[in-house]
Give the backbone structure.
Amino acid sequence: MKLWLLLGILSYLSYAISTSIDKYMMNHKYGVFRTNTVKMFFDGVILLIIGLIFFDLNFTPNIILWSLILGVIYALGGIIYFTVLKLKDVGQVIPYFQSSEILLVFVGSLLLFNEFVTIFNYFGVFLILIGVYAVLSETGIKFPKLDKAFFLVLLIVIIDVVYWLLVKKLLFDIKPINLAIMMYFSTTLILFVYQVLFRKQSLSSLISFKPKIPKIALAAFFGAMGTFLIYSALSIGDISKVYPIAGIQSVFIFIIASIFLKEKFYWHRMIGTVIVFAGIFLISL
């Protein structure tokens, strides 16, 4: 198995676990903004510890500047993402916007980076899109309801496509661990400033929920590992191949949501799972 493919699969497994914990916290009325802020901080701390132990860290002014830009984009997407999680089942939300993201990131990578793809890769992306949609749908192939969640997801898609294409560009010159650490701390700073200035929350209100810390830290650990792994995959592989395997995240979330979150099981989602794996196989060729 190619290294970028292995790293990509492991990253989306980590993201799926983190996302499922996010949904659990939202179901138990954790504060959206406070939870996201603390989680981003923990993400940064976890990666900083890993970086200090295993890597040679180097934070230049250029890295800090670009990390602030990524932080703004990531923070905005995170705020909207947590809002959507309160409106839809976790097994629906992630596959819903990933199907659009996969297509747009794939097209964007070809336009911006002139990456080489084969007819098998095109067909693989097509299968992944169909598979993700099948895993998403509760009633089979059906256009999503045009509700508030739908339009919020479209906004997340636009934000995330910009984010991932920018990440790929930056990883040509910046090591994954350095970029990931600074991105998380930048996101934390931006979320904190946003809450203090616009939501009038004090520092004490952001750190006053100690009983919830273990679950937030657990979600942060898997989120941080997912980011480090996917950044590493993007640094050695083409984004036109690495990002489409995000379809497997919908598969992992479908399994986790069915088993642990007790969300309703549908057989056509299992069929979609098989289609996603077929698409990933073709992407890897």
Summary: The radius of gyration is 18 Å. The chain has twelve helices and no strands. Residues 3-27 form the longest helix (25 residues).
